[in-house]
Amino acid sequence: MVLSKTTSTSDLSVHSTFASRYVRTSLPRFKMAQESIPKEAAYQIITDELMLDGNPRLNLASFVTTWMEPECNKLIMDSINKNYVDMDEYPVTTELQAKSKTAIGVGTVGSSEAIMLAGLAFKRKWQNRRKEKGKPYDKPNIVTGANVQVCWEKFAKYFEVELKEVKLSDGYYVMDPEKAVELVDENTICVAAILGSTLNGEFEDIKRINDLLIQKNKENGWDTPIHVDAASGGFIAPFIYPELEWDFRLPLVKSINVSGHKYGLVYAGIGWVIWRNKEDLPEELIFHINYLGADQPTFTLNFSKGSSQVIAQYYQLIRLGYEGYKNVMENCRDNMLVLREGLEKTGRFEIVSKEEGIPLVAFSLKDNSHFDEFQISDLLRRFGWIVPAYTMPPDAQHVTVLRVVIREDFSRTLAERLMVDIEKVLHELDSLPSKVVASTSVTVPESVNNNDKVKNTDIEIQREMTAVWNRYLLERKKLNDKMNGVC
Ligand SMILES: *Cc1c(COP(=O)(O)O)cnc(C)c1O
Question: pTM here?
Answer without folding.
Answer: 0.86
